[in-house]
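HUMAN:
Could you generate one sequence with tokenized structure?
ASSISTANT:
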Amino acid sequence: MTRILDFPYAGCSLTIPGTMNAAIFLDRDGTIIKEKEFLRDPAEVEVLPGAPAALKRLREAGFKLVIVSNQSGVGRGYFTLADVDKVNAHLTREFSRHGVQFEKIYFAPEAPDQPSRGRKPSPQFLWDAREDFGIDLASSYMIGDKLIDVQCGWNAGVKMSILVRTGYGAETEREFADKLERAVIVDDLCGAAEWIVNSLKG
């Protein structure tokens, strides 16, 4: 059974009225759910603390939510496209219980050594979302726990790329500090939501 590890964070209570044609692009593993190497079983999905509340506040602030994920386990032969779909469907159901809906989940199934249209740091899926949902990338944000996530956002021209220290984030911060000068770095998704909503207040 999925464990929803959700705790009240004061920083998640900020709300900005109005609507925007902007999105929050989210890495999946290590950002909104616990990092588990080559996750294939929906029963092993573990939502990170504060993630549902953080994403709900971002929705209330007017942002669309879009997941962009590399799932190289398919290309490596560890699991199938159907397995990825099952995990994503389960994740979507769990977040919907908390009033959180995602516009779409884009994922790249190729292994790192295989040609790929959308594998991060490629910005292709963000460009696709721009076309699919009329998103203004210059008003949007990318959140993830790896260098390739923040690079994906930069490559697409988002307003800001944000690194969370969950998942591989703390390790990424230590290893690539010299490459993260343009990124905002926060502890977790709730911290990212707080930073974004505060920035909208000017």
User: Anything to note?
Assistant: The chain has six helices and eight strands. The CA atoms of residues 23 and 71 lie 22 Å apart. The first strand starts at residue 3 and ends at 4.
